[in-house]
Amino acid sequence: MSAARPPPPLSPPPSAPGPRARLALRLTRDKSDTLLLLAAALMVLAPHFEHLPPWISAVVCGTLLWRAAITWRGKRMPPLWVLLPVSVAAMAGVYRSFHTLLGRDAGVAMLALLLAFKLLEMRAKRDLFVVIFLSFFVLLTNFFYSQSMPTALWMGATLIVLLTAQQSFQYTGAVPPLARRLRTAATTALLAAPLAILMFFGFPRIQGPLWGLPGDAHSGHTGISDSMAPGTLSSLAQSDAVAFRVRFFGPMPAQSQLYWRSIVLGDYDGRTWTRVPRRRGLQRLDIGVATRGQPLRHEITMEPTNSRWLAALELSGPTLSLPGYRVRDSDELEFFTSEPVTQRLRYEASAWTDFRVQADEQPQRMARWTELPAGFNPRTLALAHALHPPATASNPASPPAAREAAGLALRLLQRFHDNGYVYTLQPPLLGRDAVDDFLFGSKAGFCEHYAGAFVVLMRAMGVPARVVTGYQGGELNPVDGYLTVRQSDAHAWAEFWAPGAGWRRIDPTAAVAPERIAHSLAQALPQPSAFGLGPLLNLQNDPNSWLGKLRFNYAALNNAWNQWVLDYNPERQRSFLEELSSAFANWRSALGAALVSGLLYLLYWRRQRRPLAPLDQLYQAFCRQQARRGYARRPDEGPASYAVRLRTMHASPDQLAAMDTFLTLYGALKYGAAGSEPRSASLTTLKNLLRICR
Questions:
Q1: Rounded Cα distance, 155 and 188, in Å
Q2: Active centre residues (catalytic)
Q3: Mean pLDDT of 14-19
């Protein structure tokens, strides 16, 4: 009786597929390509959510989610009788939101909805291309709202994803991995970059962007105004927006000398300072200006402000020239344009830090700078009369002499310094007699409080005085050498006049917060706790920290983008093309000779270089393949000797056999009879053997 056989071993049960395998089984090629297209459409539409009405953004996102759910579950598209009422209702909503169906905002809103709804109606390949090309157009409309560097980078990334989605639908066989398709799309975009750069520099420019200004063109519209009341500049100081950038052609002056003059205020109604209006019939004065030393040449790139006032380093002049604008100046040494500045401007100026203005002016012509409203601030007037008795009836309009006026100014500064005054961004509210409440009550204020109170006291003592608003200081970027002046650098100071000395600048804020003038606003104010982010803020403000260096590098890169891309206007294009034409004219003969020599050498090289036969091309490919493995063919080594040496290689038996057969067949085709096979069939055999060797 035979022994019983042991039962066969049980095979292990098939393991369940992993999450990635289950996802691959569930996502067919059509599904993955459609989801990639939805991701590209979301990248196109996402920047528009910032300026579209909330209901449009919600409808767009809901439509994309609806389409993604249909693709994931493999359901059918919604019928036309469902899509048509939804589309009509959406267009009616656009009309209700914008009161028109034309224009930039309404047009972009309709395009965004059209793109989202079209994704629910892709039934043929033609619809697919409509969605892709509509996405390209909607992508372009993002530049109607922002032309910043981050926007351009996002648009570049979106373009690559769109090209990847477009080429994914073109494959008829095996589809490459997503990473390879992304690289192919990036390569396609890079191939078009030289033509785009050439068109950027050479295509005729127009003044201003298409369809009006982008949304970030008026980023500086919250700048200095032509009036000042308590709290005006303290609210502006909380803005981190860039007002202008400055590049000095020589050494930069000290921080305490960086006073950027903008608007002079001389009329006071008890609360608000305004400019002296020209309707009062004031005749234009002959301004006497005396300067000493060498001027500081610098270039200012001013952001759009939507106002007419220009910032200039004291004392700039005598004229400023801006392309496309008519620049005027006033008796108060202000510069302004005939039309509001609605685009980024760049202009050069020269300034003197040592100067005298109207030193020889007649005192009676300065009386307008001593006017005060009646019935306001009685305690302030009493203090002024105590410090300096009012003028006598025999000589009512004689201002103090230069030394006496300077002494009075110093006494006021000493009072601010010694009597517990505080420099703060959040001063308390003031009543009808604002200066009285500030000087004798709160004793807390920003620069406009100190400058306004100082001018009122000086006028009450018979000294001509006025308020000057502008900017003070700036932050030097060590990466590109530009000085960045922000809206937070907005400042107000004072000027007083004395016979023989003229107008003299004096900054009452320096008596209370000298760090504001010597360094910056951030160092003059106490730092908030910022919910535990204090160390991070300190790192950002420290120029030697890694975060500070990162901030400076980004600011330099952003400034370069503004200077060389956004500010490439028709004038700069004309200048660039003229310089390029002049350079070509100077080097025309040398360039022509170089081109002729290059063409002759190219013809000679092509005649000397004969194309290899297909057999030799395959042999060279085989030799390069083995050289990469460390078995390069020697110059004196033939196919047979090479085959003997390759037999010692560490490779699979199939590869070794393929190498030996390849070299044997090559030797027969090259040096002997090829056998009974046709030559074309032998070359095909060599190609197959080469593939096996690889």
A1: 15
A2: 447, 491, 507
A3: 49
Q: pLDDT tens across 601-655, in order?
A: 777 666 665 667 888 888 888 998 888 888 888 888 888 888 888 888 888 888 8
Which tokens hold the place of 585?
């004219």
Q: Vertex 461, ends 456 and 462: CA angle to 5°?
A: 100
Mean pLDDT of 386-408: 71
| Cα atoms in the Cβ-side hemisphere of radius 13 Å centred on 288 | 11
Q: Secondary structure of the chain: what % helix, strand, coil (to 5)?
A: 50, 10, 35
User: Identity (one letter) of the amino acid at 512?
Assistant: V
Any idea what DSSP says for residue 169? Answer: T
Instruction: Give the amino acid at 631.
Output: Y
54's tokens: 């909330």
Which token pair is 421? 């005054």
Residues 462 and 220: their CA atoms lie apart, in Å, by 38
pLDDT for 590 equals 60
Q: What is the DSSP letter of 371?
A: -
The rounded distance, in Å, linking the Cα atoms of 451 and 391 is 23
**Is 369:390 a contact under the CB 8 Å cutoff?**
no
Q: What is the mean pLDDT of the chain?
A: 80
- Tell whether omega for the bond before 315 is within 30 degrees of 0, i.e. cis: yes
CA separation for the pair 273, 495 (Å, rounded): 14
Instruction: Look up residue 463 and give its two tokens.
Output: 């000294």
Tally: H helices and E strands in the chain: 24, 19
Is the CB of residue 499 less than 8 Å from the CB of residue 399? yes
Would you say 363 and 499 are in contact if contact means Cβ atoms under 8 Å apart? yes
pTM of the predicted protein model: 0.65
Answer yes or no: are the C-beta atoms of 189 and 71 closer than 8 Å.
no
